[in-house]
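subagent[fold] <- orchestrator: predict structure for attached chain, return tokens only, no commentary.
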Amino acid sequence: MPPLAALERFFERLFERPTARFFRTRLQPVQLQRRIERAMESERLAASDRTLVPNRYTIHLNPDDVAAFGEFGSTLAAELADSALVFARAHHYTLVDRPRVELVSDTAVERADIVVKARFADPVPSRAAEPGGATQPGPDEDPATNTMVFTVPRPEAPRARLRLIQPGTSERVLELDGRTVTLGRATDNGLVLADGRVSRHHGRISVRRGTLVYTDLQSTNGSRVNGTAVDEVVLGVGDRIEVGDTLLVIETVEPGGNAVGV
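subagent[fold] -> orchestrator:
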């Protein structure tokens, strides 16, 4: 593990875990997602023309923390894998195949602690090999990033229309039709916001089990929905997402669609 990553891990254990135990807070899915992203960053390998990152993640949790996720635990691993793929694509990392996440109940892990083990695994044998062991890009691979993208069966994704309101600019109407879209100041976001109070990667709008969900990506100034600070919330018609000085209003949510366009 690189020295900076090891130092970060030390401070996480020093501050986060004792605080969580003292207040008896429940682990949130976004915390697991952040640890996967950190593991991806710390274990990445730089090549001449690309950066390789692990495609297998095992999350060790205390049995009580695993039980606390209840019925949601059955779909949590798949959703974390989806988020890992989005993160890898946003940072132009290379994956040999789609990330996979496994939750493990481990009595050696203390309550409210999270231990992520990342590794590189051979791809699923569905790609034709070239002479000498090289592989040809599959039909669903993104040629710009060499990140493989798979068609995964999903519940019917809702379409949504958002109204974007920013001070000093004309309002815009954005159409969402199912896939995840991130928003922030960085140009690799699906929705780029020219707002000095918005973080580079501020929030994410995604579909989860047929519902529209907004997630704050641990932004500096936070996110509010209908005036209330949120980490993650299901969205409906009329909801108002406030990020920095920008306002997003959910105007319609309708069934249908599999992709996103803004």
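orchestrator: received. Logging for downstream: Residues 182 and 204 are 4 Å apart (CA to CA). The longest strand covers residues 246-255.
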